[in-house]
Amino acid sequence: MRPAIVAARNISKSFGGVQALREVSVALHRGEIRGLVGENGSGKSTLIQILAGVLGPDAGEIVVDGKTHAHLDPREAIRAGIQVIYQDFSLFPNLTVAENLALNTELEHGTRFVSRRRRRRIATAALARLGRDIDLTQTVAELSVADKQLVAIARALLHNARVIIMDEPTTALTQREVQTLFGIVADLKAQGMSLLFVGHKLQEVLALCDAITVLRNGRNVAEGEAAQFSPGDLVRHMTGRHLQGRPRATTVSEDEDLLKVTDLSKAGAFAHVSFAAGAGEVVGITGLLGSGRTELALSLFGLAPADSGTIEIAEQAVRIRSVPDALRAGIAYVPEDRLTEGVFAEQSIERNLAISGLSAWAHPAGWISPARLRRVVAPWLGRLRIQTPSARMPVAGLSGGNQQKVVLGRWLATQARVLILNGPTVGVDVGAKADIHAQIRELVGHGLTALLISDDLRELAEVCDRILVMHRGRIVREIPAAGCDENALARELGRLE
Amino acid sequence: MLRRLAQSRASGGVRLLAVTLGVFVLMTILNGDRFLSGRNLASMCFQFPELGLFALAIMLALITGGIDLSIISIANLAGLSAGLVLAQSTASGLHVILAIFLALGVSIACGLLNGWLIGYAGLTPILATLGTMQLLMGLAFALTKGHAVAGYPEAFQTLGNGTLAHVPVPLLVFLLGAIVLQVLLSRTALGIRLSLLGTNPTAAVFAGLHVRRLQLATYALSGLLAGIAGLIVIARTNSAKADYGTSYLLQAVLVAMLAGVDPRGGFGTVWGILLAVLSLQFLSSGLNLLRFHEAVGPYINNFTKEFTWGALLLLVMVLHCAKNQHPR
Amino acid sequence: MRALLHRHEFYLAALTLALSAGIALANPAFCSVANLFDLCQGSTVMGLFALGVLIVLVSGGIDVSFAAIGAFSMYVTSKVLLGLDFQGSAAVALVLGGAIGTLLGLFNAFFIGFLRLPTLIVTLGSASLFRGFLLAFIGTAIVNTLPAGMVRFSKLTLWEMRLADGTIAGLPASFLLLVVAALLVGCVLQGTMLGRGIYALGGNPVAAARAGFNLRGRQLFIYGGTGLLSGLAGVVHACMMRNANPFDLVGMELNVLAAVVLGGAGITGGRGTVLGTLLGVGLIVTINNSLILLDVPSYWQKVVVGAVILVSTGITARTGWARARGAGLC
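ok -> structure tokens follow
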């Protein structure tokens, strides 16, 4: 077999007693797109960081062009042509686009003094390779998310990169942008570049990759040509078990509209949005990035109030100018980014679960003893199927899926009647995803209304009763879920362009 | 790793107890009878409550992920405003009550100013409280033109010097403050909210906490604790000055760190503060007594102490760091 | 022109000029050459400290130990040179003071760069450690007769002019030191990868580590450099005062922080310029100077400086950059 450009051999790594990787190997050949898949916590990110030289392995070796290293440092990795595009893009918000693009190159060349002209030249060349144009003098903080990712990709290409590692690059992207990204990836492959595509959206991985490596619990569990795997195989390898089929969507009777939004507008975000959702209904909202869907959700939750329009809950008009307003009206929100916006990582599971419903659970005067807290939280652990030896453990010790259940669960004890879920299963492993979907259906079964914002078309088709499609700040289509599957949805979305 | 972290938080208490006892034994060995004398023990009981109250105030702000550097200025301004009422030759019982309420009101108002600056105006806690520290100290100077305000009624001085059933009044006040704060932090909804706010302020917004109101409450409360300390200070010394006890700030931070309060927010206990402030007081009094020692005596002065506090703070931080190495 | 209007520095300069004009109307003495020279002299020590603090703030840290470092360097340098009965040039004093300052700065850098401890608490501790060590073990007596070289340096002027009343006003040579230091710091921060790395570190520390910046090396430079500038400031202060008082300098931390923050730097890191910092120093010195000229008691200076910190950080907290950063993904 032809030699690999980069290979990690028998890598082991532990953090304070927790074994993140055990003798993991992965190899990447010239012109190959390899998928690295696994559930959250399977060791993917640790492996990426070791390949990028950010972390050193405890045991094992990294082979670059036949040369063996016990530990790469970030500069060596870059010099060897290895580039990582992190999920958060790793840009400097306070510096200009030009400087962000040129900084790594300058660093790599051991430049000591800055030359504006050289910086401009490097930056222009980088963007030209992608065929895009961005104002070089803007600071990155001022860019849109899509442009930020563009800058990150352009920067990676600068370093005579031969190996590009993409860490869940499609997480923040919409269907259409994913297609654009796949186009770029195919171009790069044609130029002889090797790519390690890290993710857990199986369809994407299967569609894009030549070969696949599967990790589970920090070990290699499967490896081979992509054609050998079916989605079911991958799920089995990732989770180590077979999964049930799709949850059955229940039909609901819509006696009254629990949530009614009329003519809601916010400058620069969305305009004239009107829709209604009944008790017991899950309404999906999807759309491209910049379609205004997250802004709509945030305005309903009071974080970025709308400029005009009305919101009614159970036929009562409510004014939502702040989060407390939204809570009083019974609107709850499960945020997009679990780690930074959702959990209180170092705090106990019980405190994380109880936080939003404290007023209901505490004595009217505000007392809540540790024993009382434990007592009121206990039933929820079972109901939410959160697996933990003790509710007093820090929530950080739970898997991503269980953490998400905690974030979802904290609203259950409140008076919330409208639950807005923004990407509730992003980064959640396949097993927990099914649990969360079932949980959402169960909740609406108790008379709640759920708004589910998602890019995952399969999720939308399986969980929602109907789906609203947003485009450029407006609701442009309403699709009933009955008889709709993800392919039909994809066609609908494709028609928007 | 996390399980160990949780254990280390619990075992930190045992270690701290050992440190406190260790310092006590060491100072007893070095100073012998002088350290164990009734006079020394009594004077310690009158001294540490002030520092203890300051440390509680610092801990409260640290738990919510902030810091309050203005506590000493607040204490002095509150003390001065009470002092101005009390120092009148005609000061009566009514004046004493008025003065106490005035001081507490002033300290809460200063704390609310901090809370407003941080929660509503969007300043970082460090800069906001550095600013008010300077501003309030300046106001205190302006109020008195730099002079001390001295001479209070006997009744008021009891607050600093008196005893109740043989227990020093300042100690009672401190213990009361400590118990109230402990109950607040561990057994009320507000306490849980404050800890979680300190752990992850963004998540706190999404979990529906009234972050701004919580910040107002935090700094108002830490201001109040500082104001109580200010009252005890002026009652004990029978005078109020605009720049009294500025070295308390460093010591209060030191006590909080020694007590295992997490400077990144979210964690801290009153028991820790209690033990830490005791061990610091043993050390401080022990050093004072060492002045009578023939060999090292000449080297012991306030500056040696300043040096010691600085070195200890760094040492404590290094030990915490070695204990809680994060993989991040 | 539009770019100019968006610059923080533009408003700062305008504010300083407006304030100066107002004071000049109230008290014409403000505009005298002698007073202008006084302002320059007053800005020198504060400016040197401020440049150091600027570097630290840009990197996302905070330093409250610089004044203690300045006092330590100043006093030890004077003592050592007197002890050696050194008669040579003041340059030696500056080098020695700078070296002592650098060492103390590196002491901070060890805790911050290698052990990753919070900068505020580390520098609070080290400030107390340095000052305590100085006063407990080195001395508390004011050195009234400085080494000959430092005395000569203190009398050296760049430019002199005879005033109407016959006295001579001069611009002290030490002002040149501030100018050179400002140019150097400006060049390093804007024109070298070392400096850009400090901005990068302040803007996104995680990305800076991934990009392969040597972060420990940068922390050594940041705190060592701040120590160097503080040491120089200490020696210059002694020369101006014509004595070395170990109790001096400590207490001016907030004036310096106010100046730097006023100059547009924030402790969230990644922001701040040398020009802004110098303008901030100029404004603070002007305010303090004018309060004296207007016979306002000195303790009001504290109130004003406190208010300046609160108002200027309050304004920057509300300007676009901070908001964009809050909303941005990276």
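Residues 243-249 of chain A have pLDDT under 50 and may be disordered.
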